[in-house]
Design brief:
With 157 residues, the chain is α+β, with helices and mostly antiparallel strands. The chain is 29% helix and 28% strand. The chain has a five-stranded antiparallel β-sheet with strand order 1-2-3-4-5, with helices on one face. A hairpin with a 5-residue loop joins strand 2 and strand 3. The longest helix is centred in the N-terminal third of the chain and has 26 residues.
Length: 157
């Protein structure tokens, strides 16, 4: 009888954890986006756009991170400093910031904590912590109904 009770209890816990996980996945709301896997976004220090022209908040948040990685002293970057990881604003000649960067978005991956990982394939003409060449992931968080980049990391192929 105890064995039957423990088995029933175990099944109940499994069902609860599964339904909790499913409901968490359902509460993650990705904005409607026009992200195209084939679109390449390119930036050059000589002509960084003043404002984002894309309808997707996520694309605009990644754009802001890239533009501020290239030139963190612009007025736009200084205005949005609190919306980006602080390391973007580090000043050191050894960082070898890019002056050009291009990327394409390859995947959006919602996580259970409400964040979304934006996977990109990027190329640049600098080093910048190794965060502008290869598979770069931008971790997004929705703060006050606005998507912001909270972290950036690279993964190997």
């Amino acid at each position: 009888m105890l064995k039957s009770f423990l088995s029933s209890l175990l099944c109940l816990f499994v069902l609860i954890s599964c339904s909790k996980e499913d409901s968490q996945k359902q509460t993650i709301n990705l904005p409607e986006t026009t992200v195209s896997e084939n679109e390449i976004y390119s930036y050059d220090i000589k002509n960084l756009p003043q404002t984002c022209k894309y309808p997707s908040q996520m694309v605009c948040a990644v754009e802001l991170a890239v533009k501020c990685s290239i030139n963190p002293s612009t007025q736009e970057c200084q205005q949005h400093k609190k919306e980006l990881p602080s390391f973007i604003f580090m000043e050191d000649e050894s960082l070898q910031r890019p002056t050009q960067q291009s990327y394409k978005i390859t995947k959006l991956k919602p996580l259970n904590d409400g964040t979304v990982e934006v996977y990109t394939q990027s190329t640049c003409n600098g080093v910048w912590f190794g965060l502008c060449n290869g598979n770069i992931i931008y971790v997004m968080k929705n703060v006050n109904n606005k998507w912001q980049v909270k972290d950036i990391y690279a993964i190997s192929n």
